Amino acid sequence: LEHLPDPHSVMALFRTLLVPRGHVVLEFPNIDGFSLRWKRFLQRMGIARKTYRPGYHPGHCTEYCRESFQFLARRHRFDVRIWQTYSRNPISNWIVNRWPVGIKARTLLRMD
């Protein structure tokens, strides 16, 4: 979803593909994840800066935190049934499953 320039048309498409009370599972980066927040803090403080390799083209058109994604879902009449964050590291996964600070988000939507 984060790679598409028009997430609204995709959410509308989901509505046409699902049966009533159907479900959608999505995964995307969580911009409220601890490590991303830490990087933004370091950049604001001038301690770190964004660097890109030559020829790099950003792939994300949109980014989501829990609130921004819930706004998108509600706008298209979806109910966010589950919001869960996770990490690639099994040890930190234990933490981010309890507090939503993981770098990745997984969500289950139900069509109202």
Spatial strand order of the main sheet: 1-3-2
Strand runs, count: 3
Report on the biggest sheet. Answer: 3 strands, antiparallel
Q: SS-based structural class?
A: alpha+beta
Question: Could you tell me how far the N terminus lies from the C terminus, measured between alpha carbons in angstroms?
Answer: 20 Å
Keywords:
single chain; 112 residues; alpha+beta; 3-stranded antiparallel sheet; 4 helices; 35% helix; 21% strand
Description:
By secondary structure, the chain is an alpha+beta fold. Helix content is 35%, strand content 21%. A three-stranded antiparallel sheet has the order 1-3-2.
Q: Can you lay out the helices and strands and say which pair or pack?
A:
Layout lengths: L6 H11 L5 E7 L4 H11 L21 H10 L2 E9 L3 H7 L7 E8 L1
Antiparallel strand pairs: 1-3, 2-3
Task: Summarize this structure briefly.
The protein has helices at residues 7-17, 34-44, 66-75, 90-96, and strands at 23-29, 78-86, 104-111.
